[in-house]
Amino acid sequence: MLAPNYMPCGFANNALKTYEIIAHTILPTFIIVFSSIALLLRVFWHKYRMKQQFHWRRYRVMVMQVLPISCIFLIFPFPYVIVVLLQICGLSAAIGGAFLSIARFSSYYALLIFPIIAVGSSAELRHKFKKILLCGRPERAIAPTMTFNRQMT
User: Fold this and answer.
1) Is the residue at 63 inside a domain?
2) pLDDT tens digits along 92-150
3) How far apart are CA 117 and CA 104, in angstroms?
4) Is residue 18 part of a domain?
5) How many whole angstroms separate alpha carbon 21 and alpha carbon 82?
6) CB-CB contact of 79 with 72 (8 Å)
7) Would you say 114 and 72 are in contact if contact means Cβ atoms under 8 Å apart?
8) CA 32, 34, 86, 12 torsion: positive or negative?
9) What is the predicted pLDDT for the residue at 152?
10) Residue 140 is assigned to a structural domain of this protein
11) Average pLDDT over residues 31-46
12) How far is the C-alpha of 77 from the C-alpha of 83, rounded, in Å?
């Protein structure tokens, strides 16, 4: 069984630990969050600069795909990344130690939830997923039918 303060053996070297945390934890989280928000701001700014009217219906799909992804990475790994970044900058390890022991694996939750958000935000994938869940049963439609009453004479 692993001890609660388990760390990879490469983290014994302080330079390797700092590189690993910055290159594989901090940078990807910041890049995902800020590039997603920058994409939305770029579209808004382009419409404003071109003096075109912004139609929300056209960009609703893009917003519905970008915002949940940004929110996932803001909720799960971002607090952990901020505390680790502050510790690298010189904050005492005792200040965020309890939080880090709990939040160490929070980035894994983002990876587990990401496919669900991807299916939910894409209309095509959502339709295919519903079709799979219905096990190929066709949707039942209620339609009027004509009946002929023949009277026997």
Assistant:
1) yes
2) 878 878 888 888 788 788 888 888 887 777 778 777 877 777 765 666 667 777 777 66
3) 22
4) yes
5) 11
6) no
7) yes
8) positive
9) 59
10) no
11) 86
12) 10
- Residue (of 43, 69, 64) closest to 54 by Cα position: 43
- Say if CB 29 and CB 78 are below 8 A apart: yes
Looking at residue 3, its amino acid is: A
CA distances from 116 to 7, 15, 16, 80, 113 (A): 30, 37, 34, 22, 5
41-96 confidence digits (pLDDT tens): 888 888 888 877 777 777 777 787 788 888 888 888 888 888 888 888 888 878 87
For residue 97, the enclosing domain spans 9-133
Q: How many domains does the chain have?
A: 1
Residue 118 lies in a domain: yes
Considering the entire predicted model, what is its pTM? 0.62
